[in-house]
Structures are given as structure tokens and as C-alpha cells.
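Hi C.,

You asked whether I'd gotten around to modeling the 741-residue construct. I have! Everything is below, sequence then structure, no commentary in between.
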Amino acid sequence: MELEFGHHLGLPRALPWLPLSPLVPRYGNLVAQQHGLGLRHLGEALIARGGTLRVLDGVFVPRAPRGRRRVDGEELRRLRAQKPDMAVLLEQLAELHGQDRTALRRVLLYQLTELLQSHPQGGRTTTAVSLGVDPAEAAALVRAAGARRQLSAGERTAAEGLQDEWERGRLRRAARLAALLLPCGEQDPFLAGRLAAVTARVREADAALDRARSSEGEGDVPAAGGHYLRAARLAHDCPVAMRGLIRTHRPTARSPRPLRLELTADAVRLTWPDGTARAADRTWRVIRLTRDSNGGPASLAEVHPQATGGAALDPRPPLGSEVRYAVLPMLDGVVDDAPLVSVPLRATPEVTRIRPVAGRSRIEVGWEQPPGAAGVTVLLTGPGGQKQVATPPGGRFTAHGLRTGEYRIRISCRYRTADGLDVESTGSDARVTVRPWPSPVRELSAVARDGVVRFGWTGGEDAEVKLVEWPGEPPAPGTELPDASGQLPAPLPWAPRAGGLVAPPGSLSRVTAVAVLGGCAVVGPSVLIEAPAPVHSLAVTRTTARLARVTFDWPADTGLVAVSTEQDGRCTPHRIARSVFLREGLYVPVGPTAAHFTATSVPRGTDTIVVPPVRTEAVLPAELTIAYRIVPGARRPLRRKPTTVHITLSPPDAHSPSELPEFVLVARGGEGPSPVRPTGPADGTTVLRLTGEELYRTGTVEHEIAADVCQPPYALRGFLLGAPAAHVRLEELSPATLVMR
């Protein structure tokens, strides 16, 4: 037997008609989840790819091998465990099934009907089969969908949103949607029941409003408030009931504290007492009323449907308009008591962080402007009542040419309302005093002489001029300091001497002149003063016949040291860097005569005023040389003249006797034609010992070597003894000339 849609096969709650509305809450969220998973209808979440559904007398899915399983709460939970990617959607379907056992089939039939009616081949059985409908039921479903009235776009929107508006208590909105569905409501008994309930509640709410108006007209405000409260409970979105409830609100002495408002730069914060016995179960509905500038009734907007904790935030108040707020206590989604009503508030946020600064004959003001403000107006009132109005762009205003005295600054924000009116805020005030300011220092000069620095300047005639050194980079000339005592560094701590100041050795200072009058100061020009550190412990010693080593303690904070050598009427400069000096030392070429050395630190800057440091000096004495010469005796028949040694000091008058070493001549004989030279003063026979005093006294000494000193052949060699020997050069002779035969 061929099945017809809606045949009763003995199963409970089978539907003999196709639904015109899903009649489930949050249907839009359900569809969004479905489309996000790429499903054409909710039934595809219940079956595997290629599976089929039965929908005539309930929703059934295949079970192995040929059986069918009715989709209930247990089956939905099993599917959720099998399909983790669809777990959220299946959880919503399980909740929906727990609330209404017919809801899942009603939603599925509603979606299948829409798909068939909008499909170009929706009248064919194969189309229903392609949607996953069991072939045995596809023909019956296609015939039923063809016989059901097709909804327009507006009717479909009303059908899908009706249940949401009903459950949320938005009766007026539900009534408008129901009016779109009345012509087709008889085809769906479930929908017809909901439409009838909406109509009945509308009549009840209207009756409550009529009684409220009547009581209000008779002057019975408490009774009117009760009727308005009844109407608001029935229709949460009824503006007439809400306005009447707020209008007739009369707080008593025992009422909680009024609703408090705080206007911020871009929002309104609301706080109210929430200490009732049922505070844990109660939520609050926040309503904003905006006054109509044309005198019409105030418009209503819901700010927060379920505020908790006694606080809420209106993030988008209508800027420039006058608003009031009503906070309604809600219990189980219904208005529970009379509202808390705020005083009127003009939504014109003020500027914040006003920063007035007084300068020389001027005032500068900065502020933070609210993001919704179209601009600001600045009113400047002077000490004599003079007013100056400006509409500066941005967040800054400057007024010049002001006389001394106290000034009042009022900054108001301008707003453009939704109906095109320009509204100005009350304004925020600030006060600032323009004080007398000193004349600035125009030029600053400095001269370094005789170890002191003498400063001079022009300008600052009516002020005290202070010389200071800033810890870092000084402010630019002309910078104004309204708090001289807190912003100025300490005066320059240089010691005074001879009408000037002594710069600390090794310092590089940027000295700034500041004009000070009372508590105000103006920064002037600066000069850079450098006092290079002196060089200490300068010493010079000869290392070879033509080279001298220069040593000293490297001065701190110095990169280069200049060393000059004066010798034989010529001056030779040398410069050495610290790294080279520490690594290699300093060696300079010198002659045998005396030399005069000076060392000074090289200034670091090129544009500085330099305080010449004390020159460090050292003298390199003339080079001392002791030379000896051997003159062999002439050979004559039967007689030989003695060998003579000549010892000469050069220069003869360069030093004192105590600075001269002792000279010793040693002879050493040996076997063979070439005797070995003595290696030290004790390596042989002492031929001659001459003290430094004897050599200094004569300059040249001639001494004969006795013939019996050593058996020829023998070798002679001279040595210098004593501490001064390190500073005296001994001119050695050729070894061949020192062998006596």
C-alpha cells in the first residue's frame, strides 16, 4: 500500500500536516551552526554519508543491518560522541528535544519543505531522495510539500522569529510577526495555537494599559503604576507601558538609593543597589529613554537585557541628547517590581586631562577630547573680565599677549544630535596664573686666562642670572621653566678666584646662563668649557745613543697627550693616543746634548673654550760618554816604550762628580796568538782604576801600563762601575786594537 503523509502507524505524536513554522527558540543560531558545518538540513547531522531518514511518523535513522532507530535524547548523545566536529550542533538538538519531543521533527520537516519548494525539480521524488529522505516516504513528502502553501520571504522571517519574540516577552514584536502569519495559520495547528496565545496576551496587555490610563487620569498614580507594571510584565517591549511605568514611578523614603550615572568620554556607567533578598536570582533590564527634540514621546532602547551585580554600561549613548535610564528588576524573565529611574542626563561628555601651562605673556592649554565630539569651544576670561573665544582644531589652544594675573579657562564640547541639532556641553574649568617673567639672556661669553674662566652676558637686565650645568643636554635657549626651584640644577659649583671661576681639572662642562625672576626662569645660551687634566710624573731616560723613553701617568678623560722636545734650538712636537701609549710606550729621537721636555693634555673638543692646563716639564741631561784609547809603545832596539791608555769624559762639565761612574781597565793574558777579552771587571788583572771625581777633575786622564802587568800577548778591556754607570755610555774599541803583543 502506498503511504500518504501523516498516516498514523501507531507511533505517538505523529503529525498529519507539514509545519509552517519551526516554533523553536534561537532558531537563527541553530541555522548558523548548521550552515557553518555545510549541512543542507539538520537531518544530515543524524545520518552517515549516503544514509536515509524517515520522517512520516517520527524521525528514524538506519541501524545495522536493516533496522531503524528513532532519534531521541539517547540517540542524539550517542551521535554527539561519534561526531565530535558536530558536537555543538548535536548538543543543541539534544536540549531542544528535551524541551519539546516534537521539535526536532517539526524543524526537520520545515527545512525539507523549504528545500523542496525552492528547488526547480522539487516535485520529483528523486529530489527528496537526494536530500536523504527514505525512498519509501519520498513520494508522500513531495506531495505534501506541493500541497502546502509556500511562504513569502517576509512570512518566512516571521515564522522563524516568532517563538524567540514570544519567549523573550517581546509581545509587540511577536504581534507584528503574528499578523504576517494569520492568513496561513489554520494549516498548522501548532502555529495557530501560538497565534491565538499572542492575540490573547495582546488583549490582556491592552486592557491593563486602558486601566492604567484611566487611573492616571483620575490622579491615582499608585494604581496607574500597578497597571503599567502589569502591562510591562505581559509585553516587555511595549513603549507605552514602559513610559507609563517610569512616569508614574514615585520613590518612597524606604526606597533604595536612586540610580547613579557617571558620564565618561564615550559611555555612561550605571550603578544601583543590589542588596535584596533575592539578588542571586534576580537580573536587571536596563532601558534608555531619549528625549525627542521635537517634543514627541521619548524613544526607548534596551541597553542591557540581563545586567547583574548592580552595574551596567551603556557604550553608545546618543551624544548631544538628553537621556534617562530605567533599571527594571527581572525574575524568571518577567518584570518583578517597580523600576529604578535616574535623573535626566545630557549625554555631552566633557574634555578630560586639561593641562594649562602659563608662560611669558601667554597660556598654553592641552586636553583629551571625547571621541564623539565634533569640536570644542574655549572661553578664556582674563583678570579684568576680558573674554576671548576660540574654536581651535585638535587638542591644543594658545593665547599670546596676555598681561599678568589669574585666568579662567572653560572648554566645552560640541555635539551633533541624530536629528541634526548642534549641542554644547556645560564645559570643564581650569585656572592658571600668568606671572611676571624675566628678560632672557641673549648672549653668553667666556674667556679663559691665568687658570680661571671669566663669564659675561647680555640681556637678563631685570633678573638674577645664574650659571648652571645640566645633568644631560640643556633645554633649548628660550625654554621657560615655571618652577625654577624644582626644575633648575644647582648653581655652578666652581671655586671663585681673581674675579673668575676655576674649572675642575679634567672637566668638560656645558655652562648655561639662566635668567630667574621669582619662581620663573628662562633658559639662555650655553658655552662649552674644557679644562684638560694636567700630566703628572713626567720622566725621560735615554735608552740608546739616539733614543729616549718618555713616561708619565696618563691623565683621566684624555684621548691624546702632546709631548714637545726642545734640543739644540729646535722644538719637535709629538702626539700619542692612550691606547698606543699603554701598548707600546713613547720613544722619541734625541741627540747627545741636553733636551727639555713638556707634556700637556690635548683638548677633546674643537669648539670649546679651553682652560690651558699647567705644563709638566722634564729635562733630559746631555749624554755622558767615557772613551778610552790604547796607544801601544814604540819598539826600539833593546828597548820598548810603555803602552799608554787615554780616558776622556765628554762633555767634561755636564755633571757633578757624584753622577759619574768608576772606570776600570782589566788585562787578561792567554796562550796562543789571540787571547780572550775579559768578560767583567773581575775577569783579569786590574790595570787602572779611576774614580769619577778624578775623571771629572781633569776631563782626560793619561796612564802608562807597566810592561810587567801581563805577559804578552794579552787583551785589555774597560768597564764602568757603580750606580751612575747606567746613565753613562762607554765607547768600546775594536777588539783587535785591545790586544797587546
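If it helps when you're writing up: The first helix runs from residue 27 to 36.

Thanks,
B.
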